[in-house]
Fold this protein.
Amino acid sequence: MTYQYWDKETETLPRGDLEAFQLSSLRAAVVRAFGSPFYAARLAEAGIGGPEDFRTQADLRRIPFTTKGDLRAAFPYGMLAVPKDEIIRLHASSGTTGVPTTIYFAKKDLERWSSYVARSIYSTGCTRSDVFQNMITYGLFTGGLGFHYGAEEVGMLVIPSGPGNTARQFRLMKDFGTTVVHATPSFLLHVQSKMEEEGVARSELALRKAFAGAEPYSEDTRRRIEKLLAVDVYNSYGLSEMNGPGVAFECQAKDGMHLWEDGYIAEIVDPDTLEVLPEGETGELVLTILCREATPILRYRTRDLTSFYTEVCPCGRTHRRIRRITGRTDDMLIINGVNVFPSQIEEVIMAMGEVGNNYLIVVEKDGALDRLTVKTEVGPDIFMDDARPLNALRERIRKTLQASISINPHVELHEPGALPVSEGKAKRVVDSRPKDV
Ligand code: DLL
């Protein structure tokens, strides 16, 4: 395979040079951070006087972690490190508690962000000849505008369709010859189901690639989308606190996501002890954004669980790869004392051909015990009025799940299209158990 690079020099920088660049950028980031009320206090408290305290990368560990709670407490301007006149855009995520976290961007910050996204898109083999339909939410969410400007920088024709309305999506794909789409993996699966329902033939479309991210999904889900939609699917990782998309992305080798280390310092820590783990071990990803002027963030605890590849990628990029996110430290379910990640359930059901494209995990109290119900749609080839094969399928799902998660779940099968669909991030878990106070 011939690999293409957007910025070959940066993407293949020898490790020593890359790490030296990180260290000097870290010093500059610390200087900028002192300009924000939050970090001025936080760094001083930790006994950090200035950039001279950072002689090696290990000195990064002197900086205390930053959490989502810190960002909320600093709302609205406590993290801002430049005069308000210099900021030209904000993005925000409301999160589950409703208190927003806001990131501000100066002009240069937006240019840098677009360059990371452009580099990511180009690394998948796209070029300026591609027609890109951005089927993800625009607005305060970073997915829409983040990809929009990155794709324009590559020079693709960008269709800012946003999500929803599959009939309109198909119309646009046909009218303009869309070759690349971007959406959450759950929306891509929905699009595929609708394609069959609305009688759109694959041969009418010019699709060849899809970017899928913003929510966790398994390797089996990737394979399913690739098979059903006949496209190459590339995993895309990012978070609003670190700009949004364009933090880590799969290249043409489609095996792990290169984390752009000239833009970010990545550490993987044990979520309990918070000690940095040896390379290759799974833990919580902690990120420092190096070059953002308006809102510097140092050692941000993402809650996302992953590990570094220890081998070098065949594409020749020197930026390390992270593995598919297996879950978040805060999405682990404890069901009758057993720890389960929703991703373990997804892995089992999405590997089964007869299972449809949507599922839901329900956890509730049943007397003193917890009860787990896994609801899945069946594939279009299964007849809902023939009980025998349905019972056999239900039993097979139950047994395979039990073997994998050590919990005996209830399994419900639903008709295609019966479970709720989300245009953005899917809500896969409904946990109605009373929360401990
Ligand atoms: O989801 C940014 C984004 C937009 C990424 C479009 C990719 C594509 P937030 O709304 O702040 O930002 O959510 C960030 O989503 O901490 C992960 O838990 C999860 N997440 C994002 N990408 C992936 C992925 C955007 N590829 C949170 N795999 C992150 C698994 C992902 N989880």
